[in-house]
Design goal:
Bound molecules: guanosine-5'-diphosphate, magnesium ion
Strand order of the largest sheet of chain A: 2-3-1-4-5-6
CATH topology of chain A: Rossmann fold
Helix content of chain B: over 70%
Radius of gyration of chain B: 57 Å
Structural class of chain B: mainly alpha
Shape of chain B: flat
Largest interface: A-B, 32 and 44 residues
Radius of gyration of chain A: 19 Å
CATH architecture of the largest domain in chain B: Orthogonal Bundle
Oligomer: heterodimer
Number of helices of chain A: 7
Number of strands of chain B: 0
Low-confidence stretches of chain B: 1-16, 246-259, 276-315, 409-413, 467-522, 531-541
Mean pLDDT of chain A: 85
Distance between the termini of chain B: 130 Å
Number of domains of chain B: 3
Helix content of chain A: 25-40%
């Protein structure tokens, strides 16, 4: 394994109905392309991209999941260790929006409660076919205390922003957590001896 | 010659216009200019003269040439006559040739017509022959022959047939055609019926016989479909039979469940065999292979739906799930194997077909087909059911192991850790055996969840609450062995603490085991992966590997969390098991007076009052740990213990008072202790005892001011660990040092 040359490592999992454009969003972000006619995702796909934010290297592990029901038990197993979830729907497909509460239930059940969730309405390039009004989605996201963003994987609209904003938010939370942890009392026992010991390897 | 001619022409043209014209000459007024022009004109004149001479010189040769030309005149007249004669002959030949070719063309047309006539006659004859032949063949139930006749008829040029119908014998041809068409329909029906019959009768020879007839009748697709259906139904019914055997037999439930995998295996092997045996036929008579494969998949539904029924269990005993789970993974592995077989087969066909046309697209299409085919989807669904069940199995089994947690004094280990790891390992191995990367990863994720949160919590809580004393004492009372009794009577009063100590040892031991297990699990998975990667995940791409690596790295993180927990546990062990014992041994120092004179000092010399006993006690304690704990844990624990000793010693020393010789005595005692501790631990303990050593140095001083020989600029290599206030405090422990002197010190 190579030296881990990054300051942060975050796991991001994309979820949402099949066909809303999760795979396209990931490919657009990680490879800079809009894949022509690739098949539906099987199980989960895994991609890595390292970005730099304010001089800090952030390694993003992106898990692209299959939307179909039969893969649900595979994809669910990734929720718990996720730092962030990108819940995606298709603005030209009312159905994909209506399924959001179902996805939120999944999140509630399987993800850890510190997870950052962002709602993404994809395919805004198809404005003339829009079925879900922006305001409606924004209201929904706000009610569920999620961030909201509209994207187009095809036109590369807001895709970069989606992942970078998320990375920023995760860094912010990580820093906050570190502060909080430093505030809490040290481990039980003989105070200083622990810190002495903790530098000894116990392999 | 040409050259000179040209130049002469040029001269003639430019001759009339000299380089200097008259106007310019008359315009000249200066003598100088006139002279220059004159010179120029003279030069031109000379040039012209030379040219004239040259031309005159050529006159002779030109004259000779003129004479030669005049002599050629009559010859040329002769040539002219010959040429016109030749031309006449050529024209004649040409018209002759044209005549011939026209006739040849006419002959050609006649010949073509003749051929057509012959062909038509042949066709008509054929038609008649076919008509008769078909009927005879049909009467004789020689369907192959009949089909050959129909095939012949079908391959006749339909336009010729149409033409024939317009001829004189149209009525006869018409009759033949009607008969033939009737025969064709009849044959089609018969063949279809016969094939169906053969299929129903499971008569392979007959099936193949009629299967071969279909393409002759132009019914490739239909034949292929029927053949596929036949194979499916055959396999399906075989599967059904096997299933019936599997379910209907007198075997117990568990056995029956096991049989499903065998059934599927049989089925798949059967299919593979069928593909092997029938492919030549199919390839010879048919083109499209995919339909057949899709056809195969239909029958999986039969097996699978019956599998499914046995799956969504109510919350049942995890052990009961065991065989089903094993079987599903096996099924998936088999299916995967089967798909790989097909992939290989198709690729091989591609290569045979046309090595150049195997494009990336072809391969992608095959991948797509295989990934999204019914079988794949069914297996994905099956795995989808498998994962939550396996997780349930793992969680319930681990819960059980935790609930049944026992430990015996002799072993000093907890059964729980071993059991839990056995289960986790088993589940992951099983998931791995499914050959599905996603399935494996999902189970690693679940295992990780379980270990990191649930299991860790269990251990953490056990640590928090300490071992339940009742359980502990029950076990100890139960151990009525003589050894235990002797031990307890010998070390009266220590019964309980020893008990705790052992239990704590057990805790430490199982934590160690745990950490080892984590590493072990990981290395185990890695080994398994390495061995299976090459053949299992072909065509999966590097993405799969990255997935597994990533999931495994989570497991590594978990194991490091357990290291932290272990650290915590050891600290706990130190405070709850070691400290209560060591503390009184050290505070007994207080009862040994260090305010002593020569006589007592010598007495101590002969009869050690404290440190030797402490060392013996420590030795005993350590010996017990050494056998109970792994070297790493033991080492960490001794380190914790030495820290504890130095802290306790320091506290105790501050409560004593020392004479000059008492200080010397303490110095001696401290040296013995440090020397002993250095032998039992690999840690450098001098650092831990630095403060105490410095205190001993102070207690050994002759005079208060002697401290200045070691302080500040005189400290040399010594780094003081004591603050000036502490130095004064230690000095004050010496009863013979005056407090004014100490106060007066400038540190
Ligand atoms: N017009 C448009 N089509 C998109 C966009 N993103 C995805 N698609 C199309 O939507 C379909 C499904 O995309 P995919 O990424 O496979 O969806 P997934 O099932 O959520 O992974 C594909 O046909 C894509 O070409 C987008 O931003 N605009
Ligand atoms: Mg996808």
């Amino acid at each position: 394994m190579s030296m881990e040359d990054y300051d942060y490592l975050f796991k991001i999992v994309l979820i949402g109905n099949a066909g809303v454009g999760k795979t396209c969003l990931v490919r657009r972000f990680t490879q800079g392309l809009f894949p022509p006619g690739q098949g539906a995702t099987i199980g989960v796909d895994f991609m890595i991209k390292t970005v730099e934010i304010k001089g800090e290297k952030v390694k993003l592990q992106i898990w692209d999941t299959a939307g179909q029901e039969r893969f649900r038990s595979i994809t669910q197993s990734y929720y718990r260790s996720a730092n962030a979830l990108i819940l995606t729907y298709d603005i030209t497909c009312e159905d994909s929006f209506r399924c959001l509460p179902e996805w939120l239930r999944e999140i509630e059940q399987y993800a850890n409660n510190q997870v950052v969730t962002i709602l993404v309405g994809n395919k805004i390039d198809l404005a003339e076919k829009r079925e879900v009004l922006r305001q409606r989605a924004e209201d929904f996201a706000e009610a569920q205390s999620m961030l909201y963003l509209e994207t187009s994987a095809k036109e590369s609209d807001n895709v970069e922003k989606l992942f970078l904003d998320l990375a920023c938010e995760l860094i912010r939370e990580a820093k906050q957590n570190k502060l909080d942890n430093n505030d809490t009392a040290p481990m039980p026992g003989e105070g200083k001896t622990i810190s002495y010991l903790s530098c000894c390897s116990l392999n | 010659m040409a050259d000179s001619g040209q130049s002469s022409v040029k001269r003639c043209e430019s001759g009339s216009v000299s380089s200097v014209n008259m106007e310019t000459i008359s315009a000249l007024t200066e003598l100088e200019d006139l002279e220059r022009v004159y010179q120029q004109l003279c030069a031109e004149e000379k040039e012209v003269e030379a040219e004239l001479d040259r031309l005159v010189g050529q006159e002779g040769s030109i004259h000779t040439k003129m004479l030669a030309l005049q002599r050629m005149g009559p010859d040329l007249q002769l040539v002219g006559g010959d040429a016109s004669q030749l031309s006449g002959m050529i024209t004649f030949t040409c018209s002759l040739a044209e005549n011939v070719s026209r006739k040849v063309r006419q002959l050609d047309v006649a010949k073509t017509r003749l051929y057509n006539v012959i062909q038509r006659a042949d066709d008509i004859l054929d038609l008649k022959f076919c008509t008769d032949g078909v009927q005879t063949a049909l009467r004789n139930e020689d369907y192959e022959q009949a089909a050959v006749h129909i095939h012949r008829y079908l391959s006749l040029d339909q336009s010729v047939i149409e033409l024939s119908r317009q001829g004189e014998e149209s009525s006869a041809v018409d009759a033949s055609l009607v008969l033939l068409q009737e025969a064709e329909q009849k044959l089609k029906v018969i063949v279809a019926e016969k094939l169906d019959e053969a299929v129903a009768a499971v008569n392979l020879a007959q099936v193949e016989r009629f299967f071969k007839i279909f393409p002759l009748l132009g019914l490739h697709q239909q034949g292929l479909a029927r053949f596929g259906q036949y194979l499916c139904s055959q396999l399906g019914s075989k599967a059904e039979e096997n299933l019936l055997l599997a379910t209907g037999g007198d075997l117990g439930e568990k056995r029956a469940l096991l049989v499903f995998a065998d059934t599927l295996t049989l089925l798949l092997e059967g299919i593979a065999r069928v593909v092997e045996t029938h492919q030549p036929i199919v390839e010879t008579y048919y083109v499209d292979k995919f339909i057949q494969q899709r056809g195969y998949h239909n029958k999986f539904q039969i097996v699978q739906s019956s599998m499914m029924k046995s799956m969504p269990g109510e919350r049942i005993e995890p052990r009961e799930l065991d065989p089903v789970l094993t079987e599903v993974t096996l099924m998936n592995a088999r299916a995967e194997l089967y798909l790989r077989f097909l992939r290989r087969r198709i690729m091989a066909d591609f290569e045979v077909g046309d090595a150049h046309s195997i494009t990336q697209e072809h391969q992608q299409n095959v991948e797509k087909l295989l990934k999204h085919c019914l079988l794949s989807r069914m297996m994905q669904e099956l795995i989808g059911y498998y994962i939550p069940m396996e997780e349930y199995y793992m969680r319930e089994s681990v819960n059980k192991a935790v609930a049944m947690d026992t430990y015996e004094k002799g072993q000093l280990t907890s059964s729980m850790v071993d059991d839990c790891f056995y289960i986790v390992k088993k589940c992951i191995s099983r998931a791995l055996s499914s050959s599905s990367i996603d399935c494996l990863c999902a189970m690693i994720n679940h295992a990780n969840s379980l270990l990191e949160s649930d299991f860790r919590e269990v251990l953490y809580n056990k640590l928090r609450q300490g071992f339940p004393a009742t359980t502990l004492q029950d076990i100890q009372r139960g151990v009525s062995s003589a050894v235990s009794l002797m031990q307890s009577s010998l070390q009266q009063g220590k019964f309980n603490t020893l008990g705790i100590e052992s239990a704590e040892n057990a805790k430490a031991a199982f934590l160690v085991r745990y950490t080892d297990s984590c590493t072990f699990t990981r290395s185990h998975i890695h080994t398994l992966l390495l061995s299976s990667r090459c053949n299992m995940f072909q065509g999966g791409g590097s993405g799969d590997q990255a997935k597994i690596e990533s999931c495994l790295s989570d497991l590594v993180n978990t194991s490091s969390k357990f290291k932290d927990l272990l650290q915590e546990g050891l600290t706990e062990l130190n405070t709850t098991a070691i400290k209560p014992q060591v503390k009184p041994w050290i505070s007994s120092f207080l009862s040994i007076s260090h305010n002593i004179e020569e006589e007592e000092f010598n007495d101590y010399e002969a009869n050690d009052p404290w440190v030797q006993q402490l060392i013996v006690n420590l030795e005993q304690l350590m010996a017990e740990f050494k056998t109970a704990l792994s070297p790493v844990i033991y080492d960490t624990l001794t380190s914790l213990m030495t820290s504890l000793i130095s802290i306790e010693m320091e506290k105790t020393v501050f409560k004593c008072s020392f004479s000059r010789l008492g200080g010397l005595q303490f110095d001696k005692e401290l040296r013995s202790l440090v020397a002993y501790l250095s032998t039992v631990t690999t840690w450098t303990i001098r650092d831990k005892f630095a403060r105490l050593t410095q205190m001993a140095t102070i207690l050994n001083l002759e005079r208060v001011t002697e401290i200045l020989d070691y302080w500040g600029p005189n400290s040399g290599p010594l780094t003081w660990r004591l603050t000036p206030a502490e130095v004064r405090q230690v000095l004050a422990l010496r009863i013979d040092f005056r407090s004014e002197d100490i106060k007066r010190l400038r540190l």
